[in-house]
Design goal:
This protein has 102 residues and is α+β, with helices and mostly antiparallel strands. The chain is 51% helix and 21% strand. It has a single domain (21-101), classed as Ribosomal protein L7/L12, C-terminal domain/Adaptor protein ClpS (Ribosomal Protein L30, Chain: A, 2-Layer Sandwich), CATH 3.30.1390.
Amino acid sequence: MEQTELQKESRSNVRTAPKEPRKHNVIILNDDFTTFEFVIEVMMTVFGKTQQQAEEIAEETHIRQKAVVGRYPLDIARSKVAKATRMARAEGYPLKFDIQPE
């Protein structure tokens, strides 16, 4: 094989490592109807937070009207928000979330 053919072949076989997916912030939004206790339950059940982390997020949401729940690849963020929203609607709460790129 000629040198130029070897160079072309070796360049085409080089693989780069896949890039880490872009992360997105899941943000919980405050409302006047969803209970503090329910927010804590959602944080622990859907987002895997500890009791203390869940309470801190619920408190920050109450004070600042919103809080970052976590950072996830977009598909995971969407899935978690959908699950949390279904839980809230099943209990009659208007809980809302936002997803924003980092």
